[in-house]
Amino acid sequence: MADVKPKSLNIVMFPFMAQGHIIPFVSLALRLEKMIKKNKNREDNLILSLVNTPLNMPKLRSKLPPDSSITLIELPFNSSDHGLPHDAENFDSLPYSLVISLLEASRSLREPFRDLITKILREGDDVVVVGDFFLGWIGEVCKEVGVSSFIFSASGAFGLGCYRSIWLHLPHKETEQDQFLLHDFQEAGEIEKTQLNYFMLEADGSDEWSVFMKKNLPGWSDFDGFLFNTVEEIDHIGLSYFRKITGGKPVWPVGPVLPDAGSRSTDEDVKAWLDSKPDHSVVYVCFGSMNSISQTHMLELAMALESSEKNFIWVVRPPMGVEANKDFDVKEYLPEGFEERIKKSRRGVIVKKWAPQVDILSHKATCVFLSHCGWNSILESLSYGVPLLGWPMAGEQFFNSILMEKHVGVSVEVARGKRCDIKCDEIVSKIKLVMEEESEVGREVRKKAKEVKELVRRAMDDGVNGSSVIGLGEFISHATVKNEKS
Ligand SMILES: O=c1ccn([C@@H]2O[C@H](COP(=O)(O)OP(=O)(O)O[C@H]3O[C@H](CO)[C@@H](O)[C@H](O)[C@H]3O)[C@@H](O)[C@H]2O)c(=O)[nH]1
After folding, report:
1. What's the predicted TM-score (pTM) here?
2. Where are the transmembrane segments (predicted)?
3. H helix intervals, 321-462
4. Choice between 381 and 37, residue whose per-residue pLDDT is larger
5. What is the C-alpha to C-alpha distance for residues 32 and 46, in angstroms, rounded to an integer?
6. Angle at CA of residue 224, ends 219 and 225, nearest 5°
7. pLDDT value at 264 more than 80
C-alpha cells in the first residue's frame, strides 16, 4: 500500500505590500514558528508561509533568520499593468498620492491567491489564512473555498476603529463642528476635524479613496476574527469596539510582535555615535517608511534640532512631492552648512532614508522619539520605554496620537498633518518640554513610558501568561482544533 502523506495545516499569511505591514507580519510569523517549535507534536504538521508579490520577496527574505522554515510564496504582479511606475510594488517606493493606486491594484491578486489556496487544498492539506485589512477580499475568497481566515492588523485597535468608523460615515467635509463624536465609536471620545487625514476630509463617496474603502471595509465581516498587534492593557477601548462590531467573533491582542534589536544590519556609525552620548540625551526623529514632510517643514525642523542644543538622529527622506525612490543629497533639502556644523560638533547624525530604528530605540542614550505615530513605531518606542513627540501625518496616525497622549499618557503632540503651520520655536519648546529635567510634563511622560514598557513586556511574557501570550495561544488552538475536526 502506498504511504499516505500526513495532513498538514498551512498557516498562510498575506501582508499588504508596505513595510509597516510586512515587518509585523514577519515578526508574527517568527513568533508563531517559535511557539510551534516549542510544541514538538505540532512541529511536523504545521507549515507557515508568507505570500507577496515578486519585488517584495527580497524584503521578506532579508527579515527571516537563516534557520527559519517559513516559506515564501510569490504571486504574479506587475505594477506597470496598473498604471503604476515600473517596479513600484511597495508603498515605500511611491509618493503618497499613488498609494491609493497600489491599494486598488492589489485587488488583482485575488484570483492568483484563490488558485494558491485551492492548490494547497487539492494536495490534501488544510489551510488557515491570516490576511491584511487592506486585502479585505481575502475573507470572501476563503469562505468560497471553505477555509478559515483572520485579519492580522498591523495597526492598533483604537486607531483602526476610528479609521473604519470615519470611512463608513462619510462625508466629513461639511461637518460644521470642529470636534465631533464618531457615529458608532463614541467611546473614542471627541475627534477634531484637523485629525482627519486629507483624503478622509475631502472624501465624498465618489473619489478613489471612498470607492476603495466601500469595497474593502465590508469584506472584513467575511473573516472569522481579528488578531491585533497590540496590548489589551493599553488598547482596550479599541479592542472592545471590534468585539462589539464583530458580534462575538474572536478579537485577540497578540502584540507587540516586533523585530528583535540587533537583528538587522546595525549601522556601526550610528551605534558608535550613540555609545558616545550620555544616557537619555538623544531625540530620534523618523516618520516611518512612507511619509515625508514638506521642504518648509524640513527647514523648520532642522533649525529646531540645531537650536534645541539636544543630541539627535534624524532619518531624512526626500520632501513631499519629490520622487521617493530618487537618490538624493541631504544637503539639497537642509539649511546651508547644517550638515557640516552638526558633523563637526558631533551633536547630530543624519541618516538617509532608513535607520536601524529598533536598535536606536533600544539604546540607553535615546530619550524621546519624534514620530509620525505609525503603529509599529509606537509599539517599538513603548517596548523600550521611550516617550513620544507626536507629529501624525496620514492614515490612522492622528488617532494613534490621541491614544498615546490622552489615554496612555506617554506622548505630547508637536504638530498635526502635512500642511500645518509649525515653526522652529514651537518644535524646540516641545522637545524641551519632554526632555528637560525641570519639566513636570516631561517627568510625567518619561515615568509613564517606563511603566508602560513593563506592562507591554508582561503582555508578551510566557512566564506570567501575559494577555498577548493568551491571545496567541487561543489563535493557535482555534486554528489547529478546527484542523483536527476537518
Ligand atoms: O528608517 C526607518 C524607518 C522605518 N523603519 C521601520 O519601519 C516600520 C515603520 O512602521 P510604522 O511606524 O507603522 O510606519 P509606516 O511605515 O508609516 O506604517 C504604515 O502602517 C502602519 C501599520 O498599519 C500604520 O500605523 C501607519 O499609519 C502606516 O503609514 C517600523 O517597524 C520601523 O522600525 C526602520 O526600521 N527604519
Report:
1. 0.96
2. 12-32
3. 338-345, 357-361, 375-383, 397-402, 424-435, 440-459
4. 381
5. 10
6. 95
7. no
Pocket test for ligand 1, best of 16, 17, 19, 94 (most atoms within 8 A of CB): 19
Give 412-453 pLDDT, tens digit per residue.
999 999 999 999 999 999 999 999 999 999 999 999 999 999
* Mean pLDDT on 101-121: 98
Q: Are 400 and 180 in contact, with CB atoms under 8 Å apart? A: no
Ligand 1 close to Cβ of residue 92 (< 6 A): no
233, 451 in Cβ contact below 8 A?
no
Distance 483 CA to ligand 1 centre (A): 34
Strands 191-192 and 179-180: antiparallel
380 lines ligand 1 (CB under 6 A): yes
At position 344, the amino acid (one-letter code) is: K
For cell 504538521, the residue is 45
Return the CATH number of the domain spanning residue range 268-457.
3.40.50.2000
For the chain, what are the domain ranges?
Answer: 8-259+463-482, 268-457
397 close to ligand 1 (CB < 6 Angstrom): yes
| Domains 8-259+463-482 and 268-457 in one fold | yes
Alpha-carbon Rg of the chain, whole angstroms?
22
* Res 367 pLDDT > 80: yes
User: What pLDDT does 292 receive?
Assistant: 94
CA separation for the pair 317, 324 (Å, rounded) = 8
Q: Per-residue confidence at 334, pLDDT binned at 50, 70, 90?
A: very high
CA of 380 to the centre of ligand 1 (A): 10
377 Cβ closer than 6 Å to some ligand 1 atom: yes
Question: Does 355 sit in the ligand 1 pocket, CB within 6 Å?
Answer: yes
**Which residues are registered as beta bridge partners of 51?**
73
Place of cell 515615568: 447
Closest ligand 1 atom to the C-alpha of 291? 17
